UniProtKB/TrEMBL annotation:
<dbReference type="InterPro" id="IPR013740">
    <property type="entry name" value="Redoxin"/>
</dbReference>
<dbReference type="Pfam" id="PF08534">
    <property type="entry name" value="Redoxin"/>
</dbReference>
<dbReference type="InterPro" id="IPR013766">
    <property type="entry name" value="Thioredoxin_domain"/>
</dbReference>
<dbReference type="GO" id="GO:0005737">
    <property type="term" value="C:cytoplasm"/>
</dbReference>
<dbReference type="GO" id="GO:0045454">
    <property type="term" value="P:cell redox homeostasis"/>
</dbReference>
<dbReference type="InterPro" id="IPR037944">
    <property type="entry name" value="PRX5-like"/>
</dbReference>
<keyword id="KW-0676">Redox-active center</keyword>
<keyword id="KW-0560">Oxidoreductase</keyword>
<comment type="function">
    <text>Thiol-specific peroxidase that catalyzes the reduction of hydrogen peroxide and organic hydroperoxides to water and alcohols, respectively. Plays a role in cell protection against oxidative stress by detoxifying peroxides.</text>
</comment>
<feature type="active site" description="Cysteine sulfenic acid (-SOH) intermediate">
    <location>
        <position position="55"/>
    </location>
</feature>
<dbReference type="GO" id="GO:0042744">
    <property type="term" value="P:hydrogen peroxide catabolic process"/>
</dbReference>
<keyword id="KW-0575">Peroxidase</keyword>
<keyword id="KW-0049">Antioxidant</keyword>
<dbReference type="GO" id="GO:0034599">
    <property type="term" value="P:cellular response to oxidative stress"/>
</dbReference>
<protein>
    <recommendedName>
        <fullName>Glutathione-dependent peroxiredoxin</fullName>
        <ecNumber>1.11.1.27</ecNumber>
    </recommendedName>
</protein>
<dbReference type="InterPro" id="IPR036249">
    <property type="entry name" value="Thioredoxin-like_sf"/>
</dbReference>
<feature type="domain" description="Thioredoxin">
    <location>
        <begin position="2"/>
        <end position="167"/>
    </location>
</feature>
Amino acid sequence: MIEAGQHLPAGQLSEYLTEPGEGCSIGPNRFEVQERLKGKKVVIFGLPGAFTPTCSAKHLPGYLAEIEQFRAKGVDEVWCFAVNDAFVMHAWGEQQGASGKVAMIADGSADYTRALGLELDLNAHGMGLRCKRFAMIVEDGVVRSVDVEAPGQFTVSDATSQLARLG
């Protein structure tokens, strides 16, 4: 499992963009993780899936409510990360009002989740391979802290806990 002091692994993730940008079109766009993190402080929180109960009622809304506090502490971006495709992450972000606040990052194949060592097997519940609930603070591609929730818990990856870590 990824630990503080390590560089995040190389890999690609996806984000659905609503505005065309530098080399990016409207719709799902893949990006290199290390390139996007270069020179930035980013808080990444991962969760089992879009539209699921705790994720929709507490995890993402907590970060949305505190986004200005993260910016005040020098955070360049906050990522919501899940093993869902970019279309699902975008729809969930729209439903939650995340546009322009939290980047809805998709790991549709769970390849990056496996590279992080944060996979969660929910096949017995009909949900397939997912991501454990976690939060990490990353500076210039290096993990400064990582907090992984125990199964069924929501006590260390929430926005308040991560704001406290930032000091």
